[in-house]
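From the methods appendix. Each design record in this collection lists the tokenized structure first, followed by the designed amino acid sequence. Records were kept in a plain field format so they could be parsed without special tools. The example shown here is representative of the layout used throughout.

RECORD:
FOLD TOKENS (143 positions):
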């Protein structure tokens, strides 16, 4: 049986994989098997760190919002602000709120004060209605 020569296809495949890891040193950039291992490792790390980066940015935004809110009002905190935002059905994400805090703090103060007033006002009305509905009979009725 005659010997078959592989030709250029395998060589082309190997050089294509070498282009990916051209910045590595030593065997990681020379040997085909270690190149594939390094490629897999690099892709796994990139995927993991993309998720980690999202978590870190969310933590940064929350810290910025909380710091600005606690700076002005002592008893008001980040968690109360977010809770009141959801009560009012205002859908600000944390990135936008953090950008508002950096750009103009007065705008965030105005938003938080309006939300607090509205929530306190509706809470007073709900309490008064609840007291009237529960006038000694012990049963609650929804209007």
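DESIGN:
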């Amino acid at each position: 049986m005659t010997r078959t020569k592989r030709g250029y296809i395998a060589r082309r495949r190997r050089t294509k994989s070498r282009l990916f890891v051209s910045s590595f040193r030593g065997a990681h950039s020379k040997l085909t098997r270690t190149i594939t291992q390094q490629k897999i490792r690099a892709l796994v790390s990139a995927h993991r760190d993309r998720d980690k980066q999202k978590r870190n940015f969310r933590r940064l935004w929350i810290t910025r919002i909380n710091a600005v809110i606690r700076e002005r009002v002592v008893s008001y905190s980040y968690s109360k602000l977010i809770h009141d935002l959801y009560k009012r059905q205002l859908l600000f994400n944390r990135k936008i709120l953090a950008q508002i805090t950096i750009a103009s703090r007065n705008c965030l103060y105005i938003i938080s004060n309006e939300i607090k007033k509205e929530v306190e006002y509706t809470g007073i009305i709900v309490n008064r209605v609840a007291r009237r509905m529960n006038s000694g009979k012990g049963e609650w009725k929804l209007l």
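APPENDIX NOTE: Confidence is low (pLDDT under 50) at residues 129-134, 139-143.
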